[in-house]
């Protein structure tokens, strides 16, 4: 058996979907472990230490948002791709206290799921371009250690939040469109809209409070101001 790209844990109670994911992810060279309920999924993630998780929202015994919250509460930042049947759930599942990395809405194509998984993994493992330290208005961002401080105090960011902020801070004053951010940070172009970008910007703003560096440029996108 050839070496795999790592293990992906799929927590999904619809067998047709988990079978399809297992087939496509295996074909792409991933190992796949499937659980059909939330509590078993949480236990599997903790014991198997996968490279990424595909997490259904509606699950027996413990729903997907609860699984994610439990992991994040214990400092486990394994990349999580949520799958949801309803677009309205997006704000909740990517919400501040939750720490999901991305989402995909059912029905989805297996190819899209594979692309998203590769994207979240790339973001959590690789260093962004132009690694080094950037500091701006009291915020210091270190791409080597992936650490962010505000006036010397640590700010805990998800991998996605970090990459989004690093990308914006790499060119202060430059305005990035949502599509540019989606393509550079998430690594795919917009097929389903760009609410992912807006939700993550909102999370960053909430984490920085009054020191929020991200400005909305109406009708265009986002930027961070120069010092
Ligand atoms: Ca379900």
Search tags:
alpha/beta; Rossmann fold; Arc Repressor Mutant, subunit A; 2 domains; five-stranded parallel β-sheet; four-stranded antiparallel β-sheet
Q: Would you give an account of this structure?
A:
- It is a single chain.
- This protein has 227 residues and is α/β, with parallel strands linked by helices.
- It has two domains: 7-125, Rossmann fold (3-Layer(aba) Sandwich); 133-224, Winged helix-like DNA-binding domain superfamily/Winged helix DNA-binding domain (Arc Repressor Mutant, subunit A).
- Helices cover 39% and strands 22% of the residues.
- The protein contains eight helices and twelve strands.
- Helix 2 (38-48) packs parallel to helix 3, helix 6 (159-169) crosses helix 7 and helix 6 crosses helix 8.
- It is globular.
- The structure holds calcium ion.
**Widest sheet: strand ordering:** 2-1-3-4-5
* CATH class group of the largest domain: Alpha Beta
Ends: how far apart? 54 Å
> What's the assembly state of these chains?
single chain
| Rg over alpha carbons | 17 Å
Let me know the number of strands.
12
Total domain count? 2
Q: Indicate the structural class.
A: alpha/beta
Number of helices: 8
- Overall helicity: 25-40%
Q: Give helix and strand order, one letter per element, not per position.
A: EHEHEHEHEHEEEEHEHHEE
Could you say what the CATH architecture of the largest domain is?
A: 3-Layer(aba) Sandwich
Beta-strand content = 15-25%
Mean pLDDT: 85
């Amino acid at each position: 058996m050839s070496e795999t790209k790592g293990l992906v844990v799929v927590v999904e109670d619809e067998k047709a979907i988990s079978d399809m994911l297992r087939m496509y992810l295996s074909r792409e060279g991933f190992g796949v472990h499937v659980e059909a309920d939330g509590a078993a999924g949480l236990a599997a993630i903790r014991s198997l230490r996968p490279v990424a998780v595909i997490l259904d929202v509606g699950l027996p015994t413990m729903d997907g948002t609860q699984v994610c919250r439990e992991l994040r509460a214990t400092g486990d930042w394994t990349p999580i791709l949520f799958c949801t049947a309803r677009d309205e759930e997006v704000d909740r599942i990517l919400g501040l206290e939750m720490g999901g990395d991305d989402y995909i809405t059912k029905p989805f194509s297996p190819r899209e799921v594979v692309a998203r998984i590769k994207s979240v993994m790339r973001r959590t493992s690789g260093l962004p371009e132009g690694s080094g330290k950037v500091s701006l208005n009291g915020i210091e961002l270190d791409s080597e250690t992936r650490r962010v401080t505000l006036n010397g105090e640590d700010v805990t960011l998800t991998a996605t939040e970090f990459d989004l902020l690093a990308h914006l801070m790499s060119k202060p004053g430059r305005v990035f469109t949502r599509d540019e951010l989606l393509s550079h940070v998430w690594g795919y172009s917009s097929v389903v809209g760009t609410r992912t970008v807006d939700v993550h910007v909102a999370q960053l703003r909430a984490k920085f409070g009054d020191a929020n560096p991200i400005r909305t440029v109406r009708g265009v996108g986002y930027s961070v101001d120069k010092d």
